[in-house]
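dumping this here so i dont lose it again. seq + smiles for zinc ion
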Amino acid sequence: MEKRRLLISYAHPDDESFGLGAAIPKWIDDGVDVYLICATNGDVGFVPDALRGKFATVAELRLSELDCARQYLKFKDVFMLGYRDSGMPGSETAEHPDCLAYRWQHHPEDVAADVIEVMRRVKPQVVVTFNRYGGYGHPDHIAIQRATARAFERLRDEAAGNGGYSPQKLYYAAYPKWSMRMRIWRARLNGQDPRRMGINRDVDTLKSLEHIEPVHARISIAPYLDIWEKASRCHASQGGGRVTRTSRLLRRLLYSRQGFTRVYPKPNHSRVDEDDLFAKVDLNGRSRQTRV
Ligand SMILES: [Zn+2]
């Protein structure tokens, strides 16, 4: 029987910790080999001068923060695709020809080919990426979601024609609706614009809420929230250090489970029917077409 392998395909150094910092150690404890694609070097994330430290560039700092997070999130391997961070939509940096969103827009097959190459090396049965809105609309998140979905499809088509490896399940990591509603409510209460949230002011929480998709799988992550906190703290330049006693308590009360939208095999309903992303995965190398 083959080992269970899961590939997370994300855009920036910090997406892995903020988003799945409790799910990753849970999978690893369950004996799953977890791999990460980090498509950009995080070049243009805003960094306060005080946190810049000894690093000459923001990218160097962000990559060192990812190294720090890897102490807690024990990936089997991390694949850096080396694209430039696009920064905020509409900004000058988003027009740089090496940035991920630009590359996806102008050379989508190249970006998909990079993801296909990693998938061929790792052979994950399960792949996780952002939802179609990139979680909160970041152009790099959307680009890596599209590239990952295309890579998944290409490998499935290829295997259907010639046999060989193909991934079996594709998921989007989900964000709970009530939690987004709470952020909007809190922003308004504090006199903030809910369309311009986050450290880089690029999070439109109203649109993010509109784009939340149904959850089909929920996994229990409560015992791993300490690890989430430690990994998130590594990304101090992106606000990861701001864990207060209240936010810790709230997280424990409210975020004991992580939801996922199943994209393939596509469910014909909008309810939770899995508590394990490897449910019905064939570990003997064959790919099942069964609808779950
Ligand atoms: Zn990101």
